[in-house]
Amino acid sequence: MTSKLFPILAVLTAILLGYAFYEAMFVAPTDALQGDVYRIIYYHVPSAWIAFLLFFINFVASVQFLANGNPSTKRVVNWVVIVLGSLGFIAPFFPQVAAQLPTGMYPSSVATTALLIVGVYFLVGRLFPGETLDMLALTAAEVGVVFCTVVLVTGPIWARPVWGIWWAPGDIRLTSTLVLWLIYVSYLVLRRFSDSAQTQKLAAVLAVFGALDVPLVYFSIWFFRTQHPQPVIGGGGSIDPRMLRVLLLNWVAFLCFAFLISWSRYQLEKVRREVDEAEAMESLRDSAAPTGAAGISMGQGMK
Predict the structure, then answer these.
(1) How confident is the model at residue 195, as a pLDDT?
(2) DSSP labels for 71-114?
């Protein structure tokens, strides 16, 4: 069924990407200050959102992979997630906590996000049991690095005509995004070149550590002085409704595209592991065959 569904989704995604491109290049109004160069936003921002989403999935899968090694540890981690999610849902409605939220961030949004995170955590654990969690983590990291690379490439292209510089070394968002990319590239290098039996667990620990940089990247423009403007959605920023519609359209198109890439990469990883397992079993049979034959010959000689 999946083999029949994939081509249909691929065609629909291609149509959606083409329509989103047309809207971004020819329909969305030109920015009064930046001119047409601002249209990079329709690729830069959605790529960042999708990279964050994939790194979050990598984080969730890595945590569950580490916790699944011991039933008691898994129960503890599950309760920790439930407690933290409950606190995240309730705390924003206290006036003392709500006063600390960045401008434009509503308590209801924080509470909804907390519940969503808990839901995604348990949904991932249910849909991807056992070894498939590691496969999901690897897939999310690989595709996430691709979209994060798009962010790092389109950012300087956009910055040069607007800021007059390609890169601002002291900018906390730029620096933290580069660090995030380097962490996950290191994750992929570890997975590719390490043959240790502990590679999966070491990579999962690195992924958990790397995910801590995602909130820093996201909230940096609120808490640090940075070249970046305020968020266009909430946070005190503003955007023309026509631009916002095209931005969200491109985000949906890129999200569908990322899903298809991740689906393909996950299936490829699944087949690769099945082949490796089959080759390992064949090697064991081949190495055991001569010993068995020799034993039979010796037994016949003794008779």
Answers:
(1) 75
(2) HHHHHHHHHHHHHHHHHHHHGGGSHHHHTTSPTT--HHHHHHHH
